[in-house]
């Protein structure tokens, strides 16, 4: 099993470093974001297993970021622990109302934080098992690695499945062939960019009979985008 990935969103460098250090030592993979903008970029790039979000951030409050994440069907399953210096009981309720899974008040010991993280990960373990992504009529079951439309399985090769999973979890964004190669083949330099076109063609063919091939859109001169809108 690979290490769990935790995204830390905290603008205070020293605190972020301290948390990151403790988590890495405990065997977690860590990514860091200084503000909500960076956190969003990081989320689009790689799905973490848990987020630690500081309440006070420079561009948007951690509370608002938590709400945004919990409102989005692609990210709402992600467990979130809010970090804050506000110890008031009212704040605690607001924090949990935002959808955060737990709430840790500063100053906290690295041990306390770790215990909370493990507890939240344990609780969310079962929810993560039946993670389902839906887009238009498509229903993708990440656990069963299966895509269905109205209960019918869409036949997909393993690469087409991965491609569709990536598209469904990153809709409405244009990706260049190079970016898709990076994400789907891990930057394997021996795969040519043309390969992407071959798999896109196959994916469209699989979606064609459901009238959903139009979701995989070619963006002239740029790459591909997964969208239900006509641009
Ligand atoms: Ca802060």
Task: Produce a short descriptive summary.
This protein is of the alpha/beta class. The chain is 43% helix and 21% strand. It has helices at 13-25, 36-45, 62-71, 89-97, 110-129, 158-169, 177-185, 193-208; strands at residues 5-9, 29-33, 50-54, 80-84, 102-105, 132-135, 138-141, 146-149, 152-153, 174-175, 216-219, 223-226.
Query: Helicity range of the residues?
Result: 40-55%
Q: Return Rg in Å.
A: 19 Å
**Shape designation:** elongated
The strand order across the widest sheet is 2-1-3-4-5
SS-derived structural category: alpha/beta
Distance between the termini: 41 Å
Q: In CATH, what is the homologous superfamily of the largest domain? A: Response regulator
Sequence stretches where pLDDT stays below 50 over 5 or more residues? none
Instruction: Return the average pLDDT rounded to an integer.
Output: 88
Domain count: the total is 2
Count of DSSP H/I helices: 8
Strand content: 15-25%
Task: Give descriptors for this structure.
five-stranded parallel beta sheet, alpha/beta, 12 strands, binds calcium ion, 8 helices, 231 residues, four-stranded antiparallel beta sheet, elongated, Rossmann fold, Arc Repressor Mutant, subunit A
Question: Please, could you describe this protein's structure?
Answer:
By secondary structure, the protein is of the alpha/beta class. 43% of the residues lie in helices and 21% in strands. It has 2 domains: 5-125, 3-Layer(aba) Sandwich (Rossmann fold), CATH 3.40.50.2300; 132-226, Winged helix-like DNA-binding domain superfamily/Winged helix DNA-binding domain (Arc Repressor Mutant, subunit A). It contains 8 helices and 12 strands. The strands form 3 sheets. Strands 2-1-3-4-5 form a 5-stranded parallel β-sheet, sandwiched between helices. The chain has a 4-stranded antiparallel β-sheet with strand order 6-7-8-9, covered by helices on one side. It binds calcium ion. Calcium ion (CA) binds next to loops.
């Amino acid at each position: 099993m690979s290490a769990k990935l935790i995204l830390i969103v905290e603008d205070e460098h020293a605190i972020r470093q301290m948390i990151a250090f403790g988590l890495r030592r405990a065997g977690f993979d860590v990514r860091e974001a200084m503000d909500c903008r960076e956190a969003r970029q990081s989320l689009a790039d790689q799905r973490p297993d848990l987020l630690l979000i500081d309440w006070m951030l420079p561009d948007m409050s951690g509370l608002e970021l938590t709400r945004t994440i919990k409102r989005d069907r692609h990210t709402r399953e992600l467990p979130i622990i809010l970090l804050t210096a506000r110890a008031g009981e009212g704040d605690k309720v607001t924090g949990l109302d935002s959808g955060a899974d737990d709430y840790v008040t500063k100053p906290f010991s690295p041990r306390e934080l770790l215990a909370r993280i493990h507890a939240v990960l344990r609780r969310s373990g079962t929810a993560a098992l039946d993670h389902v992504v839906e887009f238009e009529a498509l229903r993708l079951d990440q656990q069963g690695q299966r895509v269905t439309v109205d209960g019918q399985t869409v036949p997909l090769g393993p690469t087409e499945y991965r491609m569709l999973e990536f598209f469904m979890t990153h809709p409405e964004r244009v990706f260049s062939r190079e970016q898709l190669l990076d994400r789907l083949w891990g930057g394997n330099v021996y795969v040519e960019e043309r390969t992407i076109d071959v798999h896109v063609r196959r994916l469209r063919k699989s979606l064609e009979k459901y009238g959903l091939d139009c979701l995989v859109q070619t963006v002239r001169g740029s790459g591909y985008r997964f969208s239900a809108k006509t641009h």
